[in-house]
UniProtKB/TrEMBL annotation:
The chain crosses the membrane at residues 20-41, 156-180. It is an enzyme of class 2 (transferase). Keywords: Membrane, Nucleotidyltransferase, Transferase, Transmembrane, Transmembrane helix. The keyword Protease does not apply. Gene3D superfamilies: 3.30.70.270, 6.10.340.10. This is Diguanylate cyclase. One of its GO terms (molecular function) is diguanylate cyclase activity. Pfam families: GGDEF, HAMP. Residues 287-420 form the GGDEF domain. It comes from Alkalimonas delamerensis. Residues 184-237 form the HAMP domain.
């Protein structure tokens, strides 16, 4: 009777010791796994939020410089559609509020902090507070303020913690039953499972799997653990795919924001940005640029008579011909409707702009055939020079526009240089 008593006593003692070791190991591994995973997830979330905030600041710069509040509100609303933002605000460099989203809400942010060119990110309870400077040409144009929620991450944290606790309970119960009947045989797979959990927690390699040697409680535990690893592997792969798709979508949206969808050439937003940069560069380097403002003649007649498809075809054809006429360093833009612009860089004199205008007139007047019909299209061109006619972008554009209207009123299918005799 003594030996069986000693045997049962030893079994209970070994079982309790094994359960204690396993419980401590799993708690340590789970804590490390949880801490590492949460820290890395928050770092990635903060990096992603800061990246998107920086991209928003870059996209909002032109609107802030030109005071386009309507476009800025649209950009903030678009950003909020893809990010868990509660509030987004844009401040001018003098700390005055420029726009706020949502528009109906009362701005809760204080004045922007004193920043040079470095963004600021702070985690406050379940929120991220982000300040990013809007960098213009060699100076800070303003600041972007974003307040994002972290409720989704904390909800996931709760589920993850509950899953870890459930896993620890299953390991503890399974190890106790198996250790009571066959302690030595049960200890080896438990040890292997513990080592696997530790390796996964440190390496984050969710492709690892626990070997299933027997179809018992420990085998089921290993199977459940493998299923968890499989789900984590799928989750990791899906997260990577989502990040790749989000980056591709961001790149595509960036391209669409600066390109005319119909003709494929630069749009008005890009034109406004380039024009200001070129004028400033020209004045600094003491060079000369020319702005050609082009408006198609009879385009409304083509649209009304032959339909909008014919009008689109004409716009695409004209855009192709304009690109064939310009030099490599020049840029073509579609400003909207039937209006185009060409920015000539580093020209020697006004004659170079006039020669380009003649080439454009000749090219546009060549027959454009659509459905075996000739489109009666011509164009009127206004030319303005910098710094000869204007020393800022707004005035240069206004003068080129005036010259174009003068060309229309004096016969069409011709060009007029601002300030030159007609």
């Amino acid at each position: 009777m003594g030996q069986p008593e000693r045997y049962h006593s030893l079994a209970r003692q070994l079982t309790l010791q094994n359960l204690l070791i396993i419980a401590v190991s799993l708690l340590i591994a789970g804590s490390l796994s949880f801490s590492l995973f949460w820290t890395m997830m928050m770092q990635r979330l903060e990096s992603s939020s800061l990246l998107h905030a920086t991209q928003l600041a870059s996209q909002i710069e032109v609107m802030l410089v030109f005071g386009d509040r309507s476009a800025a509100v649209g950009e903030l609303s678009y950003h909020a559609d893809y990010r868990p933002a509660n509030e987004i605000g844009v401040y001018q460099a003098n700390a005055d509020l420029f726009v706020w989203w949502p528009e109906t809400a009362v701005p809760s942010a204080q004045q922007p902090p004193t920043l040079d060119v470095l963004p600021s990110l702070k985690r406050n309870n379940r929120e991220l507070i982000i300040w990013v400077p809007v960098i213009g040409k060699d100076r800070v144009e303003g600041f972007v303020y974003i307040r994002e929620q972290l409720d989704q991450e904390y909800a996931w944290l709760t589920r993850f913690l509950a899953g870890q606790l459930m896993l620890i309970v299953l390991v503890f119960v399974g190890a106790g039953i198996w250790s009571w009947h066959a302690n030595r045989r049960a200890f080896r797979p438990l040890k292997a499972l513990t080592e696997l959990a530790t390796e996964v927690s440190h390496s984050r390699n969710f492709k690892l799997r626990a070997p299933i040697r027997q179809h018992d409680d420990i085998g089921r535990l290993s199977s459940h653990f493998n299923e968890l690893l499989k789900r984590l592997e799928f989750w990791q792969r899906d997260m990577h795919q989502q990040l790749v798709e989000q980056q591709a979508h961001s790149d595509a949206m960036q391209a669409l924001a600066h390109c005319d969808e119909l003709t494929g050439i630069n749009n008005r937003l890009t034109f406004n940005k380039h024009l200001g940069q070129e004028v400033n560069y020209t004045l600094t380097q003491q060079q000369k640029i020319a702005l050609l403002f082009i408006d198609l003649d009879n385009f409304k007649f083509v649209n009304d008579t032959f339909g909008h498809n014919a009008g689109d075809f004409v716009l695409q054809t004209v855009a192709e011909r304009l690109q064939e006429c310009v030099r490599q360093q020049d840029e073509c833009y579609r400003l909207g409707g039937d209006e185009f612009a060409i920015l000539m860089r580093s020209i020697p004199d006004a004659l170079a702009a006039e020669q380009l205008a003649k080439r454009i007139l000749q090219s546009v007047q060549e027959p454009i055939h659509y459905l075996q019909q000739v489109m009666p299209i011509g164009c009127s061109i206004g030319i303005a020079l910098c710094p000869e006619n204007a020393d800022n972008a707004a005035l240069l554009l206004e003068q080129a526009d005036q010259a174009m209207y003068q060309a229309k009123h004096t016969g069409r299918n011709r060009f007029v240089r601002y300030g030159a005799p007609v």
